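thought: fold this chain, then report.
action: predict
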Amino acid sequence: MNHQTLDGLDTLLTALYVKIDDEIGDTRWLGRPPKLTDPELVTLAVAQAMLGFTSESRWLRFIRSRLGAMFPYVPKQPGWNKRLRAALPLVKRVIRLLAVDTDFWFDNHWIVDSTPVPCGMSRPTAKRSEMAGWAGYGYCASHSRYFWGLRLYLVCTPTGMPILWALANSKIDEREVLTAMLDREPDAVSARPGLLLFVDKGFASREFEADLALRGAEMLRPSFKREKRRKGESQLKSVRQLIESVNDTLKGQLDLEQHGGRTFEGVAVRVAQRILAMTAAIWHNHKTGAPTTRSLIPYDH
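observation:
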């Protein structure tokens, strides 16, 4: 790891910490406040994902040896795990906080896709895991393989800025999950007149398309072989490349599939941690005028 990379990361972490502290710095605690504050915790969670530390013991050693000047106190591994799991609502809040603080939040073109989040490889693991009941067997068409785990549903802008996201059992219908996501935040659709959702064939359904129309949104998807060519289909190839690039950022650079979570809460916060890291990079690159908005190169290893 070179000094230039750490300098870029230091700049991002400083800006991120200041932003979070300004917005949530008044968090009140019952009793004595923790030595590691919430803004520090979230900032460190981003740094961990950026630098590719999937081992928490190695990560905590790295903080003490290389980031000690910025973060003089970090808990031991059990304390870190406990704080991180409890921070899921806070991490979600910061993802939204950063997204809203960019021009991308108002984009009325959304890309919708899902990607596997494996939670175990062996059959005994699937039977004994605390994820049983949440996770399930699914099929990843892009890699032609089955997996046991969850699916991450991501609604983002063409720049990769996350708007909505959710984790769901692999067996649940994609349209059902997206409908639930839109029901949960109806204002996200109504606030964007002329909203276009770019989806794949898995979301095809007259009922689902009609439901989107009632919400004021239009769905663009590839046509089936025996179907008449659909409106806007020529745009979908470039959009497909965009969502694959976003997934590559999450999986190839932020190690989404090496999350290490063993409970639903553990998996959820570690997935959120990686979405936050990507969001923070887009936010910071946008604020600093970087030529490539979703680039993690100045910050990762």
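thought: worth noting. Residues 1-5 have pLDDT under 50 and may be disordered.
final: tokens above.
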